[in-house]
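Work Package 4 report. The design task specified in the project plan requires that, given a folded chain encoded as structure tokens, an amino acid be chosen for each position. We show below one input record used in the internal validation round.
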């Protein structure tokens, strides 16, 4: 995925006041967010996978583990969980 953002000249100057390299700062911020999300994903799903009778082995790599999570029939991304919560609120 490629994401492009526009930063005004004034905002660029503001960022340059504190940052040596804006693009590197953005890249590092996104990398940090991905690492935090991956950690929460694995922490949440590892017990589910370990207790699933249908799963005999787990992948030995982080990428393999993430793929196993995404392919699990109960997995839902944030949008899916929000939709489920909204539906539950309506039905309650």
């Amino acid at each position: 995925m490629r994401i492009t953002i526009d930063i005004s000249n004034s905002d660029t100057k503001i960022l340059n006041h504190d940052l040596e390299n804006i693009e590197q700062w953005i890249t590092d911020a996104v990398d940090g967010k991905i690492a935090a999300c991956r950690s929460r994903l694995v922490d949440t799903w590892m017990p589910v996978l370990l207790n699933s009778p249908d799963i005999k082995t787990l992948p030995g790599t982080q990428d393999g583990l993430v793929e196993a999570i995404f392919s699990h029939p109960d997995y839902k991304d944030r949008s899916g969980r929000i939709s489920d919560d909204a539906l539950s609120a309506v039905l309650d």
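Residues 22-50 form the longest helix (29 residues). Validation will be extended to a larger panel in the next phase.
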